[in-house]
C-alpha cells in the first residue's frame, strides 16, 4: 500500500488494489484521434486492472515494518519478508491465467519488470536479479507461452508500464498538488516513453498539476475530456505502533475519505 503524508498527526493509506483499479480505468479510456486504441482491448484492460491484484492477499491483513509504521509499497520486495512479495505476484498470475491467458502474460511481465528496472524502460528503478529467489521467479514466469508477436508484445508491455506509472502518480499524493511524498513517478512519468500509434513515434506525457484536484495532461491520451478519477483512502495515526494488533485496529477502523481528481487536455 501507499503511505502518503496527510497532516501532522495522520497518514493516508491507499491500497495497491485500489491503485490497480485506477490503472485499469486509465487503460479502459486510452485512445483517441491521436493515440491508438488498445489491441486487444479487454485483455489489456484486465491486465492493467489486475496488475497489482496479488496484493489483496497481504492487504486484507497488512503488517507494520520493523519500526512499527505501516509498510509502504516502495521497497516491499525486501521489507515484507523473504519470498512474500514474489508469492503475491506468482499467485496473481496463476489466478488471472484461469480467466485470460493474455492478461496473465502481461501481469507476469509487469512482475518481472518490477525486479529488472522495468526491463530497461525505467533505469532509475532497483535491480533485484542478483537474488536467487528472484531468478527462480523470473524463470517460472517465462514458462507462460508467447501469446502475441514480439513487436506487439513490447508495445503492450510498454503501455502496461505507462498505466502503472500514471496510476502511481495519481494515487501517490493527496491532495493532488501535495509535494511531501518524494517516492514514485515524476510529473513526466519518470520520462517513460509512451506509445502513440504504429505510425507515430513515442512521446513523453507531462502531468501539470494545477491545484488540489485538477491536472492537465499533454499530450492527452484519453477518450473522455475531462477524465474524472475516484478512489478511496483511509487515515491512521502517524506514529509507530506497539504491535500488529494495535495497527490493525486503526487500519480496519480508520476514517475513509473519497478522493476525486480530474484530468484535462491542454
Keywords summarizing the entry:
266 residues, alpha+beta, 9 helices
Describe the structure.
With 266 residues, the chain is of the alpha+beta class. The chain has one domain. It has helices at 16-28, 41-50, 56-59, 76-79, 84-97, 101-113, 132-141, 150-171, 244-253, and strands spanning 2-5, 10-14, 206-209, 214-218, 227-237, 256-265. It has a six-stranded mixed sheet with strand order 1-2-5-6-4-3. Helix 1 packs antiparallel against helix 2, helix 1 (16-28) packs across helix 8 and helix 6 crosses helix 8.
Annotate the secondary structure layout.
Elements: E1 2-5, E2 10-14, H1 16-28, H2 41-50, H3 56-59, H4 76-79, H5 84-97, H6 101-113, H7 132-141, H8 150-171, E3 206-209, E4 214-218, E5 227-237, H9 244-253, E6 256-265
Parallel strand pairs: 4-6
Antiparallel strand pairs: 1-2, 2-5, 3-4, 5-6
Helix pairs in contact: 1-2, 1-8, 2-6, 5-6, 6-8
Describe this structure in a few short sentences.
The protein has one domain (2-265). Helices cover 38% and strands 15% of the residues. With 266 residues, it is an alpha+beta fold.
**How far from one another are the termini?**
31 Å
Question: What oligomeric assembly is this protein in?
Answer: single chain
Spatial strand arrangement across the major sheet: 1-2-5-6-4-3
Residue-averaged pLDDT, rounded?
A: 89
Indicate the proportion of strand residues: 5-15%
Stretches where pLDDT is under 50 for at least 5 consecutive residues are: none
Class computed from helices, strands and strand pairing: alpha+beta
Compressed to H and E, one letter per element, the order equals EEHHHHHHHHEEEHE
User: Major β-sheet, in short?
Assistant: 6 strands, mixed
Number of helices: 9
The number of distinct β-strands equals: 6
**Computed CA radius of gyration, to the nearest angstrom:** 18 Å
Which geometry do the CA atoms define?
globular
Whole-number tally of structural domains: 1
The share of residues in helices is: 25-40%
